[in-house]
Amino acid sequence: MVNTGDVFIVSAARTAIGSFNGTLSKLKASELGGVVIKEVLNRANVGNEDIDEVIIGQTLTSGQGQNPSRQAALQAGLPISVPAYNINMLCGSGLKTVALGYQSIRCGDSKIVISGGQESMSLAPHAIYLRNGIKMGSGAMLDTMLHDGLTDAMHNIHMGVTAENLVKQYEISRHEQDEFALRSQNLAENAQKAGYFEEEIVPVEIKTRAGVQIFNKDEYIKAGTTIESLKKLKPCFIDVSQIIQSLIFKNLSVLYSNFFRMEQ
């Protein structure tokens, strides 16, 4: 029976975001997902047995075991009778699960659905094709983080290169990019210091040799970022010489155009 009533999001939480190869680098995405699911249920005062379905977005699943969504659900204490599945829509994976959860409820298939996203770039493995052996030469290792998550499969173009192409197309200067990045970092730093993120973050316990470490603050925020420090960063995705060459040709074109007008 189709549900004609409204659908509500009654609880939401997240872990703090770790930096690449940072504090969370030893934890699987499904472990982090399990922590969040458990907290979401606690905040909503909903029993584990009341959940009809779990939908989780995750792009980097190589080497993570069968159905990471179900792994997260079971680690959160949900019964084995609760179905779970993964969605891979790249950066839109997590949001797509919310839409699918809404549809499942409106269609009458479910009453309560857990939707969300989980990811660990740090644990994305390197892989090599050895199923049929290597007849000659050495086999190349494949970085699954780049191959499965950050490279256009149709054109073999890195996402960073796509950004550079857009910068060129819309003539966005390096200074404009630095100013935007500075504003973003400063706003994030101020929000973190003011405690704006604390309510939405569920702490993660990490076992170390020194004891249990509590991780509850976003790690990627670079406190004290200045425009001067950003200017020192080198481009990551294109050769600096290409930028210089492009600027030279652009300036020569402007000079030639102005000279042509003067001659006229």
UniProtKB/TrEMBL annotation:
It comes from the Eukaryota. Pfam families: Thiolase_N (PF00108). The keyword Transferase applies. CDD domains: thiolase (cd00751). The keyword Transferase applies. SUPFAM superfamilies: Thiolase-like. GO terms for molecular function: acyltransferase activity, transferring groups other than amino-acyl groups. InterPro entries: Thiolase (IPR002155), Thiolase-like (IPR016039), Thiolase_acyl_enz_int_AS (IPR020615), Thiolase_N (IPR020616). Residues 7-238 form the Thiolase N-terminal domain. Gene3D superfamilies: 3.40.47.10. Keywords: Acyltransferase, Transferase. Belongs to the thiolase-like superfamily. Thiolase family. NCBIfam families: AcCoA-C-Actrans. PANTHER family: ACETYL-COA ACETYLTRANSFERASE, CYTOSOLIC, ACETYL-COA C-ACYLTRANSFERASE. This is Acetyl-CoA acetyltransferase. It comes from Ceratitis capitata. The gene is THIL.
